[in-house]
Task: structure prediction
Amino acid sequence: MSSRRPAKPVHRIFLLLVAAIGLLLALPATAADPIVLRFSHVVAPDTPKGKGAEKFRELAEKATGGRVVVEVRPNSGLYSDKDELEALQLGAVEMLAPSLAKFAPLGLQEFEIFDLPFAFPTSTALRRVTEGPLGRRLLGRLGDRGIVGLAFWDNGFKLMSADRPLRRPADFAGLRMRIQPSRVLEGQMRALGAVPQAIAFSETRSALEAGLVDGTENTPSNMATQRMDEVQRFATLSRHGYLGYAVIVNRAFWEALPSDLRAALTDAMREATTYANSIAEAENDAALAAMRAAGHTVFLELSPEERAAWIAALAPVREEAARRLGPGLLADLARATAE
Ligand code: LMR
Result:
C-alpha cells in the first residue's frame, strides 16, 4: 500500500488556481451577497454522510437567514478522497467529512485508532471515544494543519466482501483487498493473509468489476450505494471494524466568518450531527436489506468460533499499532472503550 504522496508540481499549481478562483467565488462581492460554503464528499447522497450533509445545508441556511449558502457536492464530484484534504487546506473547498482512515497522510496517524479491528465492542463505547476527551484531543490536533474539526459522524461497522466466502482467516489467503490508505487497515489485511491495495473510493467499484482487486471492506450503505454487491458474490457480516467521519472546515474561512454566523453554523452542525448519528444504523440496516433482496451477494454470519479465530488472527495489529502510535494512546482507547 502506498500512503498519499505530496501533489506533483503541476497538480499543485492546478489546485492553487482552483483555490484562488474558489476563494473569489466564496467571498461575498458585496455585503449583501451570501457566503458560499462548499461541502464536498465522496459518497452518494443516499448514505448517512450524504443525508447528514444535506441536513447541515438546510439547518445552516435557515439559521443564517440565507447569509450562508451551503453547496453540497457528493460522489467525489468536486474532489476525490485522494485530493480533498489538500484542497481543503488550500481553501479550494470549505468543508469535508473524510473517513477517519484518511487523516494519517496529514501526519495525524492517531486517527488510525478508529481502524483497529474489534476495538469498539458497542456503539456506546464508540460514543465515549468520539464525545469524550480522546475525541476532543484528536479534533484539536487538526488546528495546526489549517483545519478546524467540528464533529464526528457515524457511518457504521464494516463487512468483508469478496468473490469467495470468508469464514476463516485462511479464506483470505492471497486475496487482493481494497483498503482505505491506513497503515492499520494495511496491517489488518496482511494479518489475514490478504494483499492490501489502497484505492480511491470513487475507483473501488470499477476496480472490483475489472478484477484488479478481489474484495474489499465497507459498510452496507457504501456497498449498496456504489452497487458493489453486483460485483461481489459473498460478504461476511463481521462488524470487525468501524467507519466514521470527522467533519472539518478550512480554518482561515471559519475564523474569518462574522461571529454571529460562526455561532449559527456551530449550532447547525450540532443539530446535523445528532441527526446523522441517529440515522446511521437504520440506513445501514436498510442498505443490507436492499442488497439481500437484490440477491447478488450471499451474506454470511460468523459463528462464535469463527469470530474468535478472526480476533486471534488480528491481535498483532493492535500490538503493532501500540508500537507505532504509542502505548499511551492505545491505553486511552482501552480505558474509553472498557465496558
Ligand atoms: C471509503 O473510502 O471506503 C470510505 O471512506 C468512503 C466514505 O467516505 O464513506
